[in-house]
Amino acid sequence: MNRRDFLTLTGAALGSHILSSTASDIAAQKAVRGKAEHVISIWLGGGMSQIDTFDPKRLGVPKEKKAGSFYPSISTAVPGVEVAEHLPRLARLMDRVTALRTVHHDVVDEHAAATNRMHTGRAVSGTVTYPSLGSIITHERGAASDGAPPYVVIGYPNAVRGPGFLGAKAGYLYLTETGRGPAGLSVPEGTDFSRVARREKLLADLQKAQSPTMDPRLRDYEAAIAQSLKLSGPEFNRVFLLGEEKDSLRAEYGGEFGQRCLLARRLVERGTRFVEVSHNLNFLNGSGWDVHNTGILKQHELIREMDAALSALITDLESRRMLEKTLLLVTTEFGRPPEFDSGGGRGHQGKTFTCLLAGGGLQHCGAYGQSDELGKTIVADPVSVPDLFATVHAAVGVDHTKNLYDGDRPVPITDGGIPIARLFA
Q1: Reduced to 3 states, what is the DSSP secondary structure of residue 315?
Q2: pTM for this one?
Q3: Cβ-based neighbour number of residue 126 at 10 Å
Q4: Positive or negative: CA dihedral 388, 391, 396, 401
Q5: Of 55, 80, 288, 396, which cross-links 50 as Cys (Cβ 3.0–4.6 Å)?
Q6: Rounded distance between C-alpha atoms, residue 170 and residue 224, angstroms
Q7: What's the domain range around 195?
Q8: CA distances from 178 to 44, 166, 261, 301 (A)
Q9: What is the CATH number of the domain that holds 83?
Q10: Nearest residue to 304 (alpha-carbon basis) of 284, 290, 323
Q11: What is the pLDDT of residues 77-92, one digit of tens each?
């Protein structure tokens, strides 16, 4: 065999191998498909310190500037997996949880950009307004019931939580108080439901008198109005009456943040597909999870509040046989370095930090991924933000390999993310 024939045969064989490997990889990726029906996403605004919560390391000494964790660690229900001492209730439930200890991105010093990254999975673009994770799942799956909005945000609204190029139908309903429903769905004082019904009939008559619009923006707007009218009645608004729950259960959830988590369970029970609960309103410690300087001194109050609310949510869903169908996701902007700043607090760190998954029918293992001895760099099993998003998509039966379309422009549903196969084993 001469040199030319050898190279031809070798190239053909190599090409065939690459093509078959690529095809098998794609087939394997598409085979990853979970059975969850809902997502409750908990947002920890400010940047949760991974080494002070779910990836504890050796104890540090702030006054001596000795790097390390702020609190001692405790054992959990999963052998070999430890968490900080202020998470005792979650420690007993870690067999239903996976702490992803090696999430990473390249955004460090800007909260807004990191918040965008952790909601859309991509960097800010001047040409494309990317949809949020909640909007994508809403677009792909819709509501689980006609009597519920598909996507609800309990917290302040902003663009990064929104639908981007997917349009208003993939948008969200929001509220900032658990004591009442969204203001836009409340009947004005002095207006009864018979009067509302007459107004709806008048609107319907006016719409019938006009030719149907072909403008997609107006059609989205009309769809949003129709959904708002459907949800403004007493039947749906009952979901916000937390007083219907037992006092003992409400006490387990804890304060305002816990009540938001309880409301999220009620919304999912009603048929909402995706709920985001923001833990960035009325912080107990005054500074939230952004623990620079002396803000770290009361960080434990936030951790304990999260421990109560999240553990109550897990056990409540489990008791109602909803945990396998409801994926819990806990995210934050970035993590914290092990070193202490001049005021005894911590700066920002994006190169490795922790997010959580719980329930959702996944095969949980307590912790996934390994950081180094101080939680500064990744040692094994890195998880990019697109990988995290692909895992969530796969868990709720959304094809993570497909394209969405911004007009005629194809946009991959994630930025090259691959689901964490270990969780689907």
Answers
A1: helix
A2: 0.86
A3: 5
A4: positive
A5: 55
A6: 10
A7: 191-231
A8: 18, 28, 10, 21
A9: 3.40.720.10
A10: 284
A11: 999 999 999 999 999 9
